[in-house]
Amino acid sequence: MIAQNGGGRRTAWGGGGSTAISTRGQEVKAQTYRGYPVEDLVAKCRFEEVAYLIWHGDLPDPEQGRRFMERERAVRGLSRGTRSVLDRLPDCCAPIDVLRTAISVIGGEDGEAEINEPLALRARALALMARMPTVVAYEYRRNRGLDSIPPDPDLGFVENFFWMCFGVIPSPAIAHGFETALILHAENGFSPSTFAARVVISTQSDIYGAVGAAIGASKGARQDGGAQAVMQMLLEIGDPRSAEAWVRDALARRRPVAGFGADIGCGEEPCVPIMTQVFQEVAALRHGRKWVEISEGLERTMRKEKGAFPGLEFPTGPTYYLMGFDVPMFISLIAMGRIVGWIAHIIEQIDEDGFIRPLVAYHGPALRAVPGSVIDRAG
C-alpha cells in the first residue's frame, strides 16, 4: 500500500493510484491513450503526434502538430560537454547506462532544472525526447569506432534516428514498424519505471532525476530488459525444431522463459498482436522467418503447458534485431518511447502535488534489550 501526502492530507492508495493518461495495466480489452484506442493511433498518427496527445490530453491540430515537430527537430543536438563525457565512458558501459549518464549530464547543464513551471517543464520534456535518440545513436557509432552523424532537422523522428545510427534512411515499412514500437511503448501505466519517476518527482526533485530513476528501473529483466532477454533466448535456441524441447527443459529446470512474465491466466495484452504483426512483416522483409517460427513454437508450448501469453517484449526483441540493432541496445530503444509516458506521469504527479511515501509492515524481531557485554568499553 502507498500513502500519498499532499496539501496536509494523507491518502492511501490500494492499487498504486489513479491516472488520466492511459488504460495500460488495467483489466480492459481496449488499451487507450487519453481515450483513443492504441491501434487507431498506430494506424493514423505519427509518434510525435502521440507524444503531444499523451502530454497535452488531446491530439494536435495541424498547426499545433507542425509547431511541436519543429521544436523537436530544433533541440536534437548534444552539447560539446555532453559529447565529451560520453567519449570518456569505458567501452564496457551498457548502452542504457550511457543513456542514463547522458540524462544526468544534460540535467547538470540546465541551470534552472529545479523550476517545474509548466511551460519550462514541457520544454525540457521535448528536449529530452529529442535528444535521447541522438545519445543512443552516438553511443552506437562510438562503440564501433565510427564518426557520429549529427541529427538532420529535415528528417522525421524515426527517419532521423536511423540516419544517425546507420547513415541510411529506412524504407517506409521499416520506419512504420519502428514507429509502431515507439507508440506501443510510449505509455506503460504504473509500471516500476513509471512509479520510480513519480516517487522522485513527488519529492520536488527535477525532471532529470525522475527520468534517471525511471531509466534505472527499466534496466531490469522484469521491466524493459525483457526484450533483450527474449532475443538472447531465441539466439540460444537457434532452430525452430528445438523450440518445444527447449521450453519443456526450461520448465523442468524452473528456468524463466523470457517474454512470458505476466501472470498466468491473465490473457493476452492488447498491444501484443499489433507488435506481432510488425514482427512478421519485418521478418518477411529481412529474411527472418526462422525467428518467427521459433517464437511461434515457444508461444504454442507455453500456452499448452502453462496457459501463458507473451508480453509486448516477446515480439519486440526479434523485431529490433531484424532491423539491425544490437541486442544490448534494446532497453535504450524502448526508453526512446517510454520517455513520453514517464514525462506525462511526472507532469501529472506535479499537478497532484502529492508526496509519495510507501507504507511498510515491519516483520523483524520483537522489542528486545541490548546485552551489556556486547562491547568491551574498557578496551
UniProtKB/TrEMBL annotation:
Sequence segments annotated as region (Disordered): 1-21
SUPFAM superfamilies cross-referenced by the UniProt entry: Citrate synthase
One matching Pfam family: Citrate_synt
Entry keyword set: Transferase
PANTHER family to which the protein is assigned, alphabetical: CITRATE SYNTHASE, CITRATE SYNTHASE, PEROXISOMAL
Entry similarity comment: Belongs to the citrate synthase family.
Protein's name according to its UniProt entry: citrate synthase (unknown stereospecificity)
